[in-house]
Design goal:
single chain; alpha+beta; 4-stranded antiparallel β-sheet; 6 helices; 9 strands; 26% helix; globular
């Protein structure tokens, strides 16, 4: 078993990650420090809507924000970093510095969907990503070149706010998810429909709208009760 295979097996079997892909750091040299040789893309299937829950709490003039999937991914990413350090390598979690969608395509995880999310053959867009960087020089995976959307426009037709006005681009002022903290300015009809599209399990929790994902043919979820 190669080191690359060992890392992937550990991430799959021990950490429960569904996607583990490798990218050469020089492809994103403007986003990483000079010591980094490999970017490891990590993905987890969001098999329940609660993965897309946002928790927020006011603290004076500021707001603490927690995305459920980010908390889950951070824990798993840090465990993989510790595993790599135990093997004698340098590793660091980089959740925000890298352009995750570009890394996902370059790593071969999937392609850009018309709803602006990454579509994967295995999990559709029901997958969330993060990255770690390491000084291990590992062979990169081939990039993803297929167009999984093809002529399908179901996500564009299904959006009740017409936020996907053209393929692969979201008008953030018309996307109800822009109201999740930190909120962006949206148009009036978005505000009016927000109570119907953004579920509020508690006063300080919000589950983001997923209509454009629900209609995608690749998002065939199995729910366990």
């Amino acid at each position: 078993m190669t080191l690359k295979d060992e890392i992937r097996e550990y991430a799959n079997r021990v950490l429960g990650l569904n996607c583990v892909k490798f990218v050469a750091a020089h492809d994103f040299k403007d986003y990483v420090e000079p010591w980094v040789k490999t970017i490891i893309l990590l993905g987890i299937e969001t098999w329940d809507d609660a993965f897309d829950m946002v928790l927020f709490r006011a603290k004076g003039n500021e707001v603490d924000i927690y995305y459920v999937y980010e908390v889950i991914m951070a824990e798993k990413a840090l465990k993989l970093c510790l595993h790599l350090r135990d093997l004698g390598f340098k590793a660091k979690h980089e959740p925000y510095r890298l352009p995750l969608k570009q890394v996902a395509v370059k790593a071969g995880a999937g392609c850009y969907g018309k709803n602006s999310l990454i579509i994967t053959p295995e999990y559709g867009s029901r997958i969330r990503f993060t990255c770690i960087v390491t000084d291990v020089d590992l062979e990169p995976d081939p990039p993803f070149k297929a167009d999984l959307c093809g002529e399908c426009n179901l996500c564009m037709k299904a959006c009740p706010l017409n936020a996907i006005r053209e393929p692969y681009r979201i008008d953030v002022k018309r996307c109800v998810n822009s109201l999740a903290p930190p909120s962006r300015e949206v148009v009036r009809d978005v505000m009016e429909l927000a109570p119907k599209l953004l579920r509020r399990p508690t006063e300080n929790a919000m589950i983001l709208c997923s209509i454009c994902q629900d209609v995608c043919p690749y998002n065939r979820r199995v729910k366990n009760f």
